Queue: 2 jobs
Job 1
Amino acid sequence: MYQTVYGGKYAAPAPINLKPEVLIIGGGVVGITIARELAREGMQVVIAENGESLGGGIRHLHFFYDRHTDVQQWLDDMIADVESTGNIIVHKGAQLKRLDGHLGCFQALIRTRDGGETVLSPSVLVLATGCITRPSAAMNGGDRVIGLSEMEKLLAGSRDVSLAWKGQPVKTVTYLLDRTNDDIKIDTVNAVKQSLILQEKGCRVAVVAGDLKVSASGMERLYRRAREKGVLFFKYDEPPVLSPTDDRVSVELQDMTILRKEERDTVSLLSDLVVTGETFTADPTAEELCRVIKLRPGTSGMLMDDNPQFQRVLSNRRGIFLAGACRFPQIVTESLSEAHAVVQEVKALLHPGAYTPANPVAEVDPRKCAVCYTCVRLCPHAAIGMEKHGERNVYAAPAVENDGTLWGAARIEPVACFGCGICAAECPARAITLYQ
Amino acid sequence: MSIFDPKIVAFCCEQSGVPAAEMAKTLKLKMPDNLELVPVPCSGRIETLYLLKALESGADGVVVFACYEENCRYLQGNIRLKGRVGYAKQIMAKIGLESERLEIFHVATNSGVKFTEILMQKVDQLRQLGPNPAK
């Protein structure tokens, strides 16, 4: 309950109890990993998965680049483990419709597709909604141009037999990585990984790329092995031209080994199949989710922008964490390390059993508050709400005596306040004080 | 006649300006003599009135050291500040104060050298402008 006397002194906010309960939005590989590890710590975990089954975007992946495990088998084992663990509850076809409260006492309304509604009160929320992979814009090359995911499926379907596309054997494959995903390394990782598998099947593979992104653990080694095994790598400045011939596709590009531009020859790679990179978009529910959770959407519809002041898994609200591809498309190894980071953060936060607001927090004097909602709109951490107070404020007409009317006033939740002072500076009634 | 030594009030965001000032101090860089540093938790904490009051009560120039945009720990503090400085400048233009007397500078935690360079440049600029007529 609010206890401030007009002109009174600041009382240190009371600690808030934290129950070991966590709600995870998104049952992809990241959500599952976090759930398993937190459940092992004895926490109560609820997974709200939008789809009809667990797994998410990793269902399109069949090979890891850095280990010889079958992805789907590995995933199925994890899902079986999650579903047999007692303190993990999975809601399928579920969406978060409403979120009130703050760290320690969130009130989350989950609606499943069959109309069922559940109200949960988790201490901490983890978002792992992932992103969506789409094939790049259609290229001139007919039906012999496919995306990386399609190639992955094709390879998984012909593990022990030789590769065939529409009944015809595939002997030469060219990977054409465009520049749309310039700071994302998924394309490079998948192309190099798949080209090694193809090479083992006896195909001739060429990778044509503007730049290869090998900044993942073990990727340089993989690239070197691909070169040693005979995969051809070509760099381009100007995008190569695709021209379909009667039964193949020809990829024509400039020979970049010659330094003088005008002397460059055209190299043409005749291929049975051309594999192109893919584009990534935010999950269609991400925008709605941002609105419900009061998170700031980042660029291109993803969650949260890059900000050096935030660790990658932190969000602008205390007690809400982000992991995996919902912030930007990333490879599984990266997503898993983010998942582990979230597990560490959640454990560190919930382990003491209580949270005491430590940093300077702002406080509203309800007597001065004019209920203009300026602070509510401006607070970047969604820490301010409106409450009814008994105290009469200075805007009441002098004739009105203290007749027990409840006056509205803003209230800053000390647990959620980060102490930036934006509200204190903006309050037109100067009703907010930032206590150090 | 002694040289005019302008008084500068520098509001420093605790995420960027304060560490930069500390770094400048550690490096023993040359700082203006007549300088007052005001640490604030976020540049969004600075009110329009703070800026104008500083000019009213004796400062020849006011500078604000804030984080780079999109780097704010509180997401939009420095954007709020930008709006307030713009408003303060409008008021200054109305009362006939030069807009150079109030300026935002974006620094990072490690820009100790840039921090002092900005201040020394400001001193030169204010020397040319002369004392603040409003004080």
Note: DSSP finds nine helices and 26 strands in chain A.
Job 2
Amino acid sequence: MQPGERVVRTQQPKPGFRIPAALAAATAVGSTIWAYIEYAFRARPSLLVLALAVVLFAIAATTLLAFRAFFEFPSVQGPRPLPVSEAAPVVLGVGTRRGFVALLASAFSSLLAILLLPLRSLGPRPSQVLRATAWRNGVRLLTADGVALRVSDVPPGGFTPVVPAASPDDPNSSAVLVRLRPSGQVRAYSRICTHAGCAVCVFMPDTSLLVCPCHHSTFDVAAGGRVVSGPASRPLPELPLAVDAEGRLVASDDFEGPIGPVAG
Amino acid sequence: MARLGDALDDRTGFRGPLRRAVGRLFPGAWSFLLGEVTLFSLVGLLLSGVYLALFFDPSASLAPYHGASTPYVGRTLPGAFASVLDLDARVPFGLVVRRFHHFSAHLFLASLVAHAARVYFTGAFRRPRDLTWWVGLVLLALALINGFSGYCLPFDMRGGTAIRMLMTTLGSVPWIGGWLATLAFGAPFPGPLILGRLYILHVFVGPALIVALLGAHLFLVIRLTHTDHPGPGRSERLEVGSPLWPVQTMRTTVVAFLVFGWCALMSTFFPVEAVEVYGPFQYTNAYAPLLPDWFLMWIEGAFRLLPRQLDFHLIGAHFSNPFYGAVVLPLIVFGGCALYPLVDERIYPQPLHGRHLLESPSDRPFRTAFGASGLVFLVFVSMAALDDRAASAFRADVWQVNVVWGILTLSVPPVAFAAVYLWLRRRRATTRPQTFLVPQMPARKHSS
């Protein structure tokens, strides 16, 4: 205690700790019972950690009880800090030495500029990364298992993810092949949602709609990937299709628009 | 022992500061302990995080899995996911420490938000404590970012989707988005680099900044003394409370063990972040419902709620839904919180040296109504992330649910504001102000 301070008995007989202790205990007990009923038979509870938890709670309770047994709760007074608006500003030596301060500032800012230059090496130009795909005229459509597809491989109302034979592991080229139910028409679209980039992997054959499960952007397959609902503002880019001499499906060009979410 | 103390004191001079620290005063109300809950969940996070880092492999490259998690043996998995599987299945205590890390993180963020709400609604952010408030806001932002990078790391279906959202968000910034996205990822999504970069952010940059700013925050708290509720014996001139030794030491010990105990108890029973169930990330796949952690649901909700009709082009730039949801909305929310102390000063002007005693929320109608409507707004936006569940519950289309919920999200907060404001105004006019008879202490001087 500082000299000049004193113990003051205020009208505060109960310590301010009862409410949180009760809350924490209630939370602990409640969540134990709930979690046990909900999960004990699915997860493998570790008895060692349960024991640890019990020990930790016991330490908390013991600390509290021991303290209450040994000490009182005196309230003490001390000074508050006062506003220091009247204090004098820092003076750097005699005079202001503006030239020297300006020199320091320009030295450190040019150092900072030099240090920022290597940041350019973190990645390539955006055009090489965000939009480039492997689809060209004549590139075959493969299934995930590497089979070159014919039109007859997809039943009406069916859909299958496809990759370009030229570069099957390229994420940007990921596409989906759909066969419409009434017409038997085959169409392919980018599999990357134009809203936030999730995989558009739900097809509803009755309405010919492709849906992205992340935020429910919905695209009309029969209408060139037009947005029907959801947050996407751009149609899903279509992949123009053709059939090669062996009857396999090939692309006749790259996607009809930039793939993926629009860059800002 | 005393000789050791003498020897140390000779070199460090620690006894003076220790003597002052022992006599520091702490207020008695339980709500002042929320910050301590945050502090000790951070300790739990750091300790469990170091343990996890000893086993984690931040690699996205695919390899056949031959580890201890039987359902996955023989499958081709990303390195990060495989290392988490092994941590869970092979390392003794690995699973439980990982869960402990998760529950510490949830508790950290929850207590941080509760602590900030306590500070806001009682006016503890007023000058000279506005700087403390701003440092705290940066801490909250860092905590959110680190929480996000943390759940990306296992590279399960949820984490990989979150990384995809990160690239979209960076890319959506008008004019510079393409560069932001490529510089961050260094390759087409997902690319071989991003996990290692997020890992360094998560285990080094984020924690280092959080610990440094926490130091600044606590320094300010000590320098400015604690606020206190008005009451008998309380005044602006004097701080009243219990000293660090022994009273606050006891409270702090109890808080620390309750925090660790709660995290241990929950990690015993509750299989949080069960990556074994989500499966490894595949960029050709997505599934619903896939939700972020609760503290990022407001951004996810905004992604779903904002209509595509708001997108527009301007001088070569595209302003789109992800930009509004993940950049503009957080800037508005954090900017609003940061600017509020300046607004509050205009609405409730007070002398500079009379701000150590807290104010009752019911005495400050505008402040309380503004904060309450802000919280209502955030809860409504967050709940928009449940649009698909609501749609299946009400047998409606998702877009119909979003139209209704969007109207509610825009209309309920203003109504809440008006209701709270008018109610508190009326209450203040009709009830006599709560005045405490402050007993006069004998005049005395303080020498510091």
Note: Chain A touches chain B through 97 residues (CB under 8 Å).
